[in-house]
Q: What sequence folds into this?
């Protein structure tokens, strides 16, 4: 009634799902993000031994195309993210010249920025 | 922690349904990761 | 299976500044459904990734690959 686990459910959870000392990975954590530009004095948290820190950047090279969905379509924000990753992938091996700058510079009108 | 355990248990049950439907096993660590992300969500 | 309303209520109350804040039954039901959809979507996308890699087991690596787009979609 209180929304928490009954004794039977707790035993099931403990047996089937709970990660513990006998597991190689003792827990999983999603690190908190923060705005570096706003919280310069924030102390970086040391990851706890045995706790797997989920990474949103480990597989960043995989994010340059939409991955399959199930019942929920990709959001506009997600499509924006994918297109930026595509752009980054395209620019990854550029040296000296920036293709984006070359493409966009002809359209620069100084009266637009001053 | 009790709330997290309740979320974890519920996530485990839902993942079990997906396992049966798709005939693919989800590791304990994957279920724990989904639970952690769900709790934060 | 799914998220019980009482559990959802306790989760929401973790974040309310005013402990007297009440949540209607409909809102709790909607939030429970949202959470259920979120979990199923995460699991199935992980399965899709594992199947694409010809794997029998969905491990954390497969979930991490779909995680950025999943979080942005919600």
A:
């Amino acid at each position: 009634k209180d929304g928490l686990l009954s004794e039977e459910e707790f035993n099931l959870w403990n047996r089937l799902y709970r990660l513990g000392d006998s597991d190689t990975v003792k827990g999983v954590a999603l690190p908190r993000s923060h705005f570096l530009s706003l919280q310069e004095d924030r102390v970086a948290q040391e990851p706890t031994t045995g706790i797997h820190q989920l990474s949103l950047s480990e597989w960043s090279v995989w994010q340059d195309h939409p991955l399959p969905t199930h019942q929920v379509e990709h959001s506009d924000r997600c499509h924006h993210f994918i297109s930026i990753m595509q752009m980054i992938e395209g620019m990854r091996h550029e040296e000296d010249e920036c293709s984006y700058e070359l493409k966009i510079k002809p359209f620069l009108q100084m009266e637009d920025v001053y | 922690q009790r709330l997290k355990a309740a979320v974890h248990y519920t996530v485990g049950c839902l993942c079990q349904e997906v396992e049966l439907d798709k005939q693919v096993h989800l590791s304990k660590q994957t279920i724990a990761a989904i639970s952690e992300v769900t709790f934060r969500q | 299976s799914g998220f019980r309303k009482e559990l959802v209520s306790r989760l929401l109350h973790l974040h309310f500044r005013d402990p007297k804040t009440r949540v209607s039954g409909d809102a709790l039901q909607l939030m429970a459904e949202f959470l259920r959809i979120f979990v199923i979507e995460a699991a199935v996308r992980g399965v899709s990734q594992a199947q694409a890699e010809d794997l029998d087991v969905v491990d954390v690596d497969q979930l991490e690959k779909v995680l950025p787009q999943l979080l942005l979609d919600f």
